[in-house]
Amino acid sequence: MEAIVLQILNGLDKGSAYALIALGLTLIFGTLGVVNFAHGALFMIGAFCAVTLSRILTLSHTIIDDTQKDFLGNPLKVEVPYVHDLFGQTTGDAIIDWAVPLSILFAMPIMILIGIVMERGLIRHFYNRPHADQILVTFGLAIVLQEIIKYYFGANPIPTPAPAAFKGSFDFGAMLGFEPNRIIYPYWRIIYFSFAALVVGGVFAFLQFTTFGMVVRAGMADRETVQLLGIDIDRRFTLMFGLAAAVAGLAGVMYTPINAPNYHMGMDFLVLSFVVVVVGGMGSLPGAVLAGFLLGILESFASMREVLNILPGINQIIIYLVAIVILLTRPRGLMGRKGVMED
Q: In the chain, N or C: fewer CB atoms in 10 Å?
């Protein structure tokens, strides 16, 4: 039972990343009908927004500290971050320590702007083109963005730690009535799952309960009728592209303490996220979220030592095997709509 609980927690952790990226992908496909292979790059850019802010906050200048001496008795040169000058040492250290959560505020407008520019500058020209053309051009864009990140940040992973307050682990065993220290899980992974649930809930609430969201849902169902009512649905869809980019970017920001950002992390998640979208059903937002968590949990259980002893390497292919089975039995995916990508 303890092993099962631990694997479920691991699965929710992985599933959170899959669900957030797949949610953004489905938002774009459901509104614009575009298969966006650059979406993984948006996840990567979000992660490097956290890296960038962390570097900005640690920018420093050199001062002569008379209170510290070298072995000859000369005052030492000390690097002092600029945030110490602005906010004081205690507050400055706290700001630097909380760089990753603060990156949410830093990344959100950047990701929305990148999404809008991407849609207006490139994607809009491929609305009426075949899906193969959309895949080729967005995949090429992803490679360009990946190489830009590699040029400016290098090829090596860049560790970006979580705040010190969340570097420990939570004892789920004691909480659930098991023996203490038998189910230990890192605080930040719990934070990530909670953050993912909050973002998913926020997106669904926005689409369900706001006038803007209701118009977008109507446009997804019948674009021409909404346009005949005098509503500029194209502008709203452009903003939705920005929102989808922000969702992917925020997923990348919060993932940085779990997996050190590197230039190819977007490609690592992209293929799996598209599998999630297809399994959940093209154009289905609930399906994308459900499939994300489902496949994350299955991948986690497939990674158990007991399973790998029987089926070596099954953890590398389990998601694709499940996708094959589901698509053979339910060709539209778990919650796919009739007519989507069936022309």
A: C
